């Protein structure tokens, strides 16, 4: 699951270095979005850098460290030095698109507000010289993975439960309410009164209604790959994503067991840009006049004054996405003619594409700002006593009408141009489509096979059994006939060898069918391995 942490970086960092790093040497310690400080032990203010990184403070070995909050990965890593840390003698290398991060696994006393655990395992990243951006200047010196423990690389590296991740350790010790909640602020939005907050086993005051929102069961991935389990839920049937024209965007899921008309969405606070199927991204931005596909950003560019409506639906509840989140002015991007553009935040999924067909889309920060989210870990706490299914609850935070006003103030200087002809959507037939690369076509094809391998395997086995059954049946039948014939001959001639009949067809046929089975299964296994390697490469290279 560290792959997700990594990808968080890819998408955040690939885009940002050129824009963020050069543009503003902004002060990260700005307190404007870190307001609510709770006296209770489980509510933490969340800092926000340029709507692209969200972080909070932990203490490790007595040192206060700002760490990025990542619901899409499961490990804790920090840079710099940690007092009172014990080296476990184990090391781990995480390779990023932006460089390699290697280090030793240490343990140290960990605390977050009122929660403390001893000997918390973490990766101490000693060499950050290969990071293409200075993470410290972006407001954090590490990352805390808030995903299921089964996805932790440190957990896998250490024996027993010594490597359990921090949030798991907290829940092991305090098993009453195994949930976290997350609320992300939106910078550059003068009308927003939302402050960034992260909580453990508590609800942010004023948002108690979240507990009466529908409980969305966390969709489980195939057992064999439970290290890839993420916080993922199903969109509503047929109306899960409502596009700019007010009509549902209809896309079939790549997840074999997803019910028809529903998509599997991962909630991942480590992704700046939500990752969606390419045809969905095209449906959102392709009908905007003047929209331009940017190959270098791997995303659509649209005029900043273009208001684009987008609403997601889960559990029968609508979650409108703020138009300031559908297209963003945070990245300083320009059209090919040099004019300023806004970045289409719902980016076609490419290297984060699920080759195993485990999810369709990844809802990153630009979506998460629009909902106060609660994740109940349930039985996914390793060593916990809770046997309930994990679930997600979300409280919508964006009021569409207020958001439209807000957009008009921010993007068109208070002038309402929403109905004007320059911002009318093109007819669907004139909509643009972004190009699908050869690599993506290959991924699509591989996914179709890989995601269905359990079925294919069962199918192969059934076929083999069927052929085997047929052979045995025919063999028996033939033998019976032969025996009958032999018996008859025997009656006439008294000596005859029956051994020759044993050499007959059936056995060699059986052999054939066996080798067919091996042939059918061999490439499957090989490509699963290949996939693993490729997944790793994609994710870390
Ligand atoms: C983390 O702690 C530092 C120093 O105590 C403080 O200045 C900063 O605002 C804190 N960050 C957050 C996100 O609370
Ligand atoms: C850090 O890693 C880079 C690239 O692998 C290497 O060139 C450099 O020497 C390393 N620095 C230290 C202090 O190990
Ligand atoms: C935020 O503002 C809206 C309207 O401006 C108000 O209804 C809501 O209660 C406020 N929320 C909080 C937490 O202050
Ligand atoms: C909370 O839920 C109750 C009942 O569902 C509703 O009456 C109330 O208006 C809600 N409050 C807020 C702030 O949404
Ligand atoms: C987007 O939604 C707003 C508010 O509901 C509405 O006024 C506007 O007409 C919608 N835009 C389009 C293109 O449907």
UniProtKB/TrEMBL annotation:
**Signal peptide start-end:** 1-21
Outline the extent of the Peptidase A1 domain: 54-385
Q: Where are the transmembrane segments?
A: 453-476
Give the keywords, sorted: Aspartyl protease, Hydrolase, Membrane, Protease, Signal, Transmembrane, Transmembrane helix
Q: Where is this region: Disordered?
A: 487-509
What InterPro entries does the annotation carry?
Aspartic_peptidase_A1, Aspartic_peptidase_AS, Pepsin-like_dom, PEPTIDASE_A1, Peptidase_aspartic_dom_sf
Pfam families in the cross-refs: Asp
**Gene3D superfamilies in UniProt:** Acid Proteases
- Tell me a GO biological process for this protein: proteolysis
Domain of life of the native organism: Eukaryota
Q: Which GO terms describe its molecular function?
A: aspartic-type endopeptidase activity
Q: Which family does it belong to?
A: Belongs to the peptidase A1 family.
Q: Which PANTHER family match?
A: BETA-SITE APP-CLEAVING ENZYME, ISOFORM A-RELATED
> What's the protein called, per UniProt?
Peptidase A1 domain-containing protein
